[in-house]
Design brief:
With about 120 residues, the chain is an all-beta fold. It is built from no helices and 10 strands.
Length: about 120
């Protein structure tokens, strides 16, 4: 069964850093482009960043220069290093395949709260 488990969220002050982790099982990860998404209260889920199986990365404008996405193909793991965090980064963060046809069921996500 395909599973996605996100971890690493926390309460952090503006300007702080966090590292999120995503553990993927099954065929969702291998050879697929993977992505981080986030959903803030009252807003739709949005794409934050994605990484291809070969390591090419792409970022949303709001996080470019502050977040770094990476993956470990041998471990079926993906990461999101978040630096210079802002209150508007507050959201539940999810991982999943970039392409709809390869996505698994959404995990529970991990809560990131940026507040002083």
């Amino acid at each position: 069964q395909v599973q996605l488990v996100e971890s690493g969220g926390d309460l952090v002050q503006p300007g702080g850093s966090l590292r999120l982790s995503c553990a993927a099982s099954g065929s969702i990860f291998s050879g697929k482009s993977m992505a981080w998404y986030r959903q803030a209260p009252g807003k739709q889920r949005e794409l934050v960043a994605f990484i291809t199986s070969g390591g090419t990365t792409n970022y949303g404008d709001s996080v470019k220069g502050r977040f770094i996405i990476s993956r470990d193909n041998a471990k079926n793991m993906m990461y999101l290093q978040m630096n210079s965090l802002k209150p508007e980064d507050t959201a539940v963060y999810y991982c999943n395949a970039l392409t709809f046809q390869y996505r698994g069921s959404w995990g529970q996500g991990t809560q990131v709260t940026v507040s002083s």
